[in-house]
Amino acid sequence: MTDMNMNKDLETGLPDDLKQCIAFHGHFCPGLAYGYLVARGAQKYLGLSRSSDEEVVAICENDSCSVDALQTLLGTTFGKGNLVFRDYGKNAFTIFSRNTGKAYRFSRKTDYVYEGENLEEYNALASGFSDGSLSPEQNARYRYLKGKDLALKPCEKVFDVREIEFERPPYAPLAPSTACAVCGELTMQTKMVKTGSGDFLCKPCAEQKDR
After folding, report:
1. Domain total of the chain
2. Are residues 129 and 181 in the same domain?
3. How many Å apart are CA 59 and CA 80, to the nearest integer?
4. Domain check: are 101 and 200 in the same one?
5. 195 and 155, same structural domain?
6. Do 73 and 20 form a contact (C-beta atoms < 8 A)?
7. What confidence tens digit (pLDDT) does each residue in 88-109 have?
8. Which residues lie below 8 Å from residue 130, measured CB to CB, with a gap of 6+?
9. Which of 75, 125, 144, 210 has its CA 20 to 30 A from that of 24?
C-alpha cells in the first residue's frame, strides 16, 4: 500500500480523535492503537476531559508508541509532570483522576483475535511478520490492519480494566536551578549532588568525578 493510499484510508476509516493521535505520533501502528484504547477507556470510566494541568495522572509501565496517545487525548505529558514512566516493560497503565480520587488499571490481555477486514490477507501478513519475511510495504500494511482492528474494538476486549486503590501522587516538584560547579550548566538543584566542600554538581559531573 502506498503512503497516499494509506493516508486516504486514515481519512475515511478511523475516528477523528485517533487521527489526532496519529498526527502527533507521526504514523499509525498497533502500539498507538493500544494507547488510544486506554485513553478512551479512561475517559469512559473516570469521566475525563483533556488535562490542562495535572488533574489527570498516567503511570505508564513501558515507553512504547502507546504513550503518545495518552499525551494527545488525556493531556498527560512529561513537561507537566503528570506522565510517570516506570521502566517495567509491562503492557499496563494506571490512570488517576485528582478530581474524583479514583484510579483504573489497564492491563493488556493475551487472547487477541483479529476481527477486522481482509482476514486472509491479515493472516498471511501475520505469518510473515512472525518469521520476519515481510517487505517494508507489507509490514506497514500489517501494522495498519492490526492497528485499525484494535482501535475499533471496545477497550474491555483488549484490556483487563479494574478500579484500584491508589495513593494520590504529589504534584510535580518545582525547584530553583543552580550552575554546576564543574560544567557550569544550569541544573534543577534537587537533582544535584552536594560535595563535602559544599559545591553542587550535576549528576554526570558527579559520576565522572567519582571514577
Report:
1. 2
2. no
3. 13
4. no
5. no
6. yes
7. 999 999 999 999 999 999 999 9
8. none
9. 125
Q: What is the pLDDT of residues 60-69, one digit of tens each?
A: 999 999 999 9
Q: How far is C-alpha 115 from the chain's CA centre?
A: 24
Residue 54 has pLDDT above 60, yes or no: yes
Tens of pLDDT, residues 111-139? 999 999 899 999 999 999 999 999 999 99
- DSSP lists the bridge partners of residue 160 as 107
Does residue 104 form part of some domain? yes
Nearest to 157 by CA among 37, 57, 6, 67: 37
48 lies in the same domain as 102: yes
Query: 146 and 185, same structural domain?
Result: no
> Residue 103 belongs to what domain range?
3-164
Cα dihedral across residues 29, 34, 35, 36: positive or negative: positive
- Residues 6 or more apart whose CB falls under 8 angstroms from that of 190 comprise 173, 175
Interval 24-53: pLDDT, tens: 999 999 999 999 999 999 999 999 999 999
**pLDDT-derived band at 186, boundaries 50, 70, 90:** very high
Cell matching residue 159: 484490556
Q: Which triple of cell numbers denotes residue 41? A: 477507556
